[in-house]
Amino acid sequence: MPSVRIRGPxxxxxxxxxxxxxxxxxxxxxxxxxxxxxxxxxxxxxxxxRVEARIARMRRYAQRAVPVPLGxxxxxxxxxxxxxxxxxxxRWALPAPGGPAELHDAAAALLGRPLPRERPLWEMHLLxxxxxxxxxxxxxxxxxxxxxxxxxxxxxxxxxxxxRVEERALPRPDPPPLPGPVRRMGTxxxxxxxxxxxxxxxxxxxxxxxxxxxxxxxxxxxxxxSAVQLATADVPELPWNRSLGGRHALAFAxxxxxxxxxxxxxxxxxxxxxxxxxxxxxxxxxxxxxxxRTRGLEAVALVPVSVRRPDERDGLGNRVSxxxxxxxxxxxxxxxxxxxxxxxxxxxxxxxAWSGLDALLAxxxxxxxxxxxxxxxxxxxxRLANVVATNVPGPxxxxxxxxRRVEALYPIVPIVDGIGLGLxxxxxxxxxxxxxxxxxxxxxxxxxxxQGVLEAYAELEGGV
Length: 464
What we know:
Elements lengths: L10 E2 L2 H9 L7 E8 L5 H11 L8 E4 L9 E4 L9 E5 L6 H12 L10 E7 L6 E8 L5 H11 L22 H27 L2 H23 L15 E9 H11 L3 H19 L9 E8 L13 E8 L6 H17 L2 H11 L5 H10 L8 E6 L7 E2 L2 E9 L8 E8 L2 E9 L6 H17 L2
C-alpha cells in the first residue's frame, strides 16, 4: 500500500527547535523516546496500517528538516517527496526469554542510533517475543520536532480510547519537489530581513510606549541575570556528569497514582512535589550504595517547563522553558525529603524561576542563524545540572492500538555530555511510569536507581 502524501506549506524552524539539531552529537542523539508495551501480538503490517491512517493528523511527520546552504537560516520543514511510512518502521525479535532485561537492552541499543537526516526525523521499532506473548513499540522522535507535551499529543493521535476503531486513510496527493539551494537561500535571507525590520519596528514602537519599554527592559534584565546564574551555578560533579561514551542503558518502574495522591493529600504539596521527592529518594539510595556522601549535597535537576498557551495546545515544536531545581538528596527520611522538596518548589514558583530562562531563550530568536548554529555546534550543555527530570501528564484512561490494550507507556528523555542521566515520568491509566536513561559506562547499575525510586515511594506511602 503506498504511503500517504501530505501537502502543506513549509515552515521555518524556530531557534529553540533548531537548537536541538545543533546540539546533537553522533554519540549523543537528541531524540525523545517512548516504550509502549502492548497486550498480545501486533504485526508490522498492522502497525503500518495504523500509522498510514493517522499520519495526516501529524503533518510534520511527513516533512524533512531541510538545511539552508551556508547556514544562512535555520532549517525549514519541507514535504518529503520520497516519504514512505515503511522506511520508518522496523521489526526486531527479542532474544529469549524476552523478559525486562532483554527488552531494556534492545531498546537501549536502538536509542543510541542517530535518526537519518535525509528523511523525516522519527522511527518506530516493533519488538516481538516478549515473555507472556506481548509486543513493545519503541517510538523515537527528534527533539527538534516535539517537546514532552507534543509527544503526548502524538500518542493520543496514534492510540484509541476504545478497543475497536475503523481505519480510514485520507487522500494521498503527491507533494511538490524539494526547493533547490538557490531558492532555500533566497527564502532564508528574505525572512531574516523581514525579521530585522519587524524588530526595528518594535523598537520604534517601544519608544512611543514608555510602560512597554520598561517591561521589555525588565525582561532583558531577567534574561541577563538567568545567563549569569547558569554560568556561575555551583553544580557538584556526580559520577554521570562526564562526557558520554555512546552506550546507553534504560530502566523502568511504575508507581500507583492513587498512592501518590494519598501522599499529597496527607503531606500537602502537589503530585509533582511527590514525584520529585521520590526521584530524589532514589538518587539518595544510589549515591549511598556507591559510597558517596549525601550529607550537605545539593544535586540539581534541569526541569523542563511548558510555556504553551491554550491556543498552542495542539501544536508541535518546542514551547518549553526550564528551571534548575535543587533535589533533596540530603535528608535521611522520605517525609523530611518531601517537606524539603515542597519548600524548594514553593520558592521557585513564587519567584517564577522559569521566566528568566524563557526570556533568555526568546532573545536568541533575534540572533542570526549562523551564529546560533556555530555556538550550538561548538559548545555543549556542560555542567548545567546533574540530571534532567521531566514529568508529563498522559491519558487517565486505558488506550488501545489496533485492538491491543496498551499496558504501559514508559517515557525516555535524552542525555547529553555532562548530564548523563535523565529521569522521565509519564502518567497513564492510574500509574506513573518512570523511565530512567543513562550512559551505560558512567552508570552501569541503573537498575539500582529504579529500585531506589520504588523504595522511596514505599516508605512515603507507608507513612500515610
